[in-house]
Amino acid sequence: MNSTAVTLCFLLRDEAAGTHVLLGTKKTGFGVGKIVGLGGHVEPGESDAEAACREVFEEAGIVVREHDLRVAGLIEFVFPARPEWNMSTSLFTARRWTGDPVESQEIIPEWFPVTSLPLARMWQDAEHWLPLALGEGAVDAVIILNDDNETVASAEYSLRGV
Ligand SMILES: Nc1[nH]c(=O)nc2c1ncn2[C@H]1C[C@H](O)[C@@H](COP(=O)(O)OP(=O)(O)OP(=O)(O)O)O1
């Protein structure tokens, strides 16, 4: 499958009210208007982990070190009607970082309880894989979108390391 390498990185913070995850409203580009994870394209010569750290800094001003990333899985997003949008997406979580989230040109960052994710405002497929990726293991998934490039035609996933 010819797909673009991208990353998503989910910062997790334990509070009295429970664990929260940093997501953000996309202001530009792919998925504009949706609440998404922080992340983006892996540049040539970069590892997935390097790209995740760079994107978190560019999109929210937060410094995450590679050794504080936990591998949370791999998702193939398949857009049969727009194969040029196909993405192979490395997922990470992190519980240690430096700084407070700041709005960037791309993202308005916001914390959400992991037990109350804003799924209605996210990509429709997120309900299938995001709760699993934020858990203890790692999720491997293949999400095939319908020709509207929004709704889910099929979602197959399995859990690693639980
Ligand atoms: N079906 C889907 N569900 C989802 O939750 N996230 C998806 C998705 N398909 C793609 N993504 C994510 C993966 C990746 O982090 C992001 C696309 O990368 P970017 O945010 O970098 O896109 P942009 O077009 O804004 O690119 P840049 O101009 O390079 O920033 O969209």
Biggest sheet features: 9 strands, mixed
Number of strands: 9
Oligomeric assembly? single chain
Radius of gyration equals: 15 Å
Structural class: mainly beta
Instruction: Give the tally of structural domains.
Output: 1
CA distance, first residue to last residue: 28 Å
**Principal-axis shape:** globular
What secondary-structure arrangement, pairings included, does this model have?
Layout (H helix, E strand, L loop, with lengths): L3 E12 L2 E9 L8 E2 L1 E4 L6 H13 L8 E10 L8 E8 L12 E7 L12 H8 L4 E8 L6 E9 L2
Parallel strand pairs: 1-6, 5-8
Antiparallel strand pairs: 1-2, 1-4, 2-3, 2-7, 5-6, 8-9
The chain binds the ligand Nc1[nH]c(=O)nc2c1ncn2[C@H]1C[C@H](O)[C@@H](COP(=O)(O)OP(=O)(O)OP(=O)(O)O)O1.
EC number: 3.6.1.56
Family: Belongs to the Nudix hydrolase family.
Catalytic activity: 8-oxo-dATP + H2O = 8-oxo-dAMP + diphosphate + H(+); O(6)-methyl-dGTP + H2O = O(6)-methyl-dGMP + diphosphate + H(+); 2-oxo-dATP + H2O = 2-oxo-dAMP + diphosphate + H(+); 2-oxo-ATP + H2O = 2-oxo-AMP + diphosphate + H(+)
